[in-house]
Amino acid sequence: MHIPTLATALTFGWAASAAQLTQVSNYGGNARAKPGMWVYVPDSVKIDALVVAIHSCQSSAQKYFQNNKIPWKQGSDRKGYVTVWPSSTTECWDVSSKASLSHDGGGDSNAIANMIKYAITQYKIDPKKVFVTGGMMSNVLAATYPELITAVSLYSGVPAGCFVSSSGQSAAWNNTCSGGQSIATAQKWGDVVRAMYPGYNGTRPRMQIWHGSTDGTLAPQNYQETVKQWTNVFGVSTTPTSSKPDTPEKNYRTDDFGENVQGIWAQGVGHSVPSHLDVSEAWFGL
Ligand SMILES: *[C@@H]1O[C@H](CO)[C@@H](O)[C@H](O)[C@H]1NC(C)=O
Ligand SMILES: *[C@@H]1O[C@H](CO)[C@@H](O)[C@H](O)[C@H]1NC(C)=O
């Protein structure tokens, strides 16, 4: 009888992966907001890069990690990078209060920045290889912590600061913005970003913006507004430098606005545009 050896088991992929999503109970910093931090370190770390995968509304780090439509665990296993999974204490991330919309304001964005700083030290991440993906919060994080993040892949979000609450409420829903009625010039949207970290003059995260043309949760107009915002931040025109139909797949259109801003318009797709692991990883240079 043939008894499989360890080598045979490995060859046929029988050895179970030991890596698991693990909670970090004290990631440090003094933000008032205390979202949870979860981390996934693959069995074989091959690259000193970090991807922060930020869950959508009515989700959590664990649910997002277990959702088989969210491919970042697979990316982590395949390419060997670490992933951090923040977990909100509110139904949606706080993208409306002054605290979260300011650099070091003590809100959710501040707490996630603290998770990134913790991860850089703990997992020996190259600070030039920190990437963020998710919805509205990933855009807010790019605006409030530009010095920490290299690139963002934003799925079905809104401009940073679009969900602001005039009464300063935390984690408030904003119907004007979600309905696509928060319309401003590129300059105004750019000013909103710059005001979140006054005086900052370093590099900004490269921004990839995905949006579906039939998004019924965050109206499609938010795509144009977000493109205006980040092209202004990078000082480039809102007219694409190149436009590729049926890219990366049929009925999607990829528009480049120079090297630092890319829009991907998904015709006929609602909320949210499914994660495109390969395309987001390519944007990150992974
Ligand atoms: C919703 O956001 C817009 C900016 O996008 C802001 O002008 C408005 O005051 C906000 N609404 C509320 C109720 O806070
Ligand atoms: C840019 O930031 C650096 C470091 O904080 C500072 O020394 C410099 O004066 C700033 N430059 C401008 C033009 O604000």
From TrEMBL:
Keywords: Carbohydrate metabolism, Glycoprotein, Hydrolase, Polysaccharide degradation, Secreted, Serine esterase, Signal. Transmembrane segments: none annotated. GO terms for cellular component: extracellular region. InterPro entries: AB_hydrolase_fold, Esterase_phb, Plant_Biomass_Hydrol_Est. GO terms for molecular function: carboxylic ester hydrolase activity. The keyword Zinc does not apply. Residues 1-18 form the signal peptide. Its EC number is 3.1.1.-. It is an enzyme of class 3 (hydrolase). It comes from the Eukaryota. It is found in: Secreted. One of its GO terms (biological process) is xylan catabolic process. Esterase involved in the hydrolysis of xylan, a major structural heterogeneous polysaccharide found in plant biomass representing the second most abundant polysaccharide in the biosphere, after cellulose. Belongs to the carbohydrate esterase 1 (CE1) family. This is Carboxylic ester hydrolase.
